[in-house]
Predict the 3D structure of the following.
Amino acid sequence: MELKISSKVALIRRALELYEDAVASREKISVSQVAHKFSRGRGSSAERGRQFHNRIWSFDPYDILNYEKIALPFPLAWRFRWGWLYGIADQLVFEYGLPKAVIEYKSYKLWRKSERVQASLYGLLVMLVFAVKPGVYLSNGQKILLIKDWRMLALKSLRNLGKELGT
């Protein structure tokens, strides 16, 4: 069943409002912070990531509805019992106004568990916010990896976070 344009606009608006609420909250943790608990970051790509994410402010999110397919950085957030989980996915691939895939880009070729956790958490946020099950991928620009077990990986990382936070 195809959603009406007004429903897609409402979902996009809701996603942006959730992100704004998360950023304004004192009870929040970023996807990157959760993922980095699994291994140390590589450092050299952090600045590139910030530059990449800065592009988010140069788009009109409702342009998503003007294209059959578009990929762009997108803010995501969800409120859990312990607080907000939030972040900006490197690329959300939208088809006909709904997200179909999450792609996290890394500048290096070997991916550790932390990178898979990060992409998986964005997949979970997409699922919760948009009520769709996206494909979740890692890419270095040359190769792309489908993360088949992303739901389990995301849930395990949140369970560990909940234990750490005492909830």
In short: The mean pLDDT is 85. The two ends are 38 Å apart (CA to CA). Residues 5-165 form a domain with the Lambda Exonuclease; Chain A fold (CATH 3.90.320). The first strand starts at residue 28 and ends at 30.
